[in-house]
Amino acid sequence: MAATAAPQPLTPAALRARLTRPWRHGEHAALAGITCTGRADLSGCDLAGVDLSGAHFPHGLDARGARFLGISWFAGARFGAGADFSDAVFMNDARFEDARFLGHAGFAATEFRGIARFDRAGFAAGASLAGCVALGNLSLQGARFDGPVSLRGAQLMGGLWCEDARLPADADLSGTEIHGRLWLRGARRGDRPLRAADFAIAFGYVWS
Q1: Global pTM value
Q2: Where along the chain do its domains lie?
Q3: Following DSSP, what letter does each residue of 139-181 receive, concatenated?
Q4: pLDDT of 183-203, one tens digit each?
């Protein structure tokens, strides 16, 4: 059987053009495994559904204020520089499981209207989810955080799943409110277990 050809690289302009086409329910841009040849600029755009699983952004990505209207799949994506999704809105599930962020990951004031899945993701240079709102579950199972981390003021309406997550000792969890279940088994903050008391408010059931 012949090997499947690798996807052709896309310039930032070509990627933007693909994703700013009118969104149609049930359709998405199949861009799994692509490499973007420069820093992707999707800031302020209304974006069609997209599968960017395994995509490579060696120069990072700017999606500040973008609206992701359809599926938003970044599973296994690699960001070689800063990836900024601050103030973005994900209308459906946002999937970042197994993603690798080598630069700072910005999700400050981001709105997740479905689940926000970061299972086993790696954050090598810190991350901010300060002020984010997640209407579905925020999942950090097995995620690894290095560098400054902030969930200050986050509103997690669907709960927080943190099994085996690793956060730095100085992670900023002040003002974080968890309105659903809180799962902390195996999670650590620095050299000690992550605890429900580390968060401002946890309204639901807690497993630790």
Answers
A1: 0.94
A2: 30-207
A3: E-TT-EE-S-EE-TT-EETT-EE-TT-EE-TT-B-TT-EE-S-
A4: 999 999 999 999 999 999 998
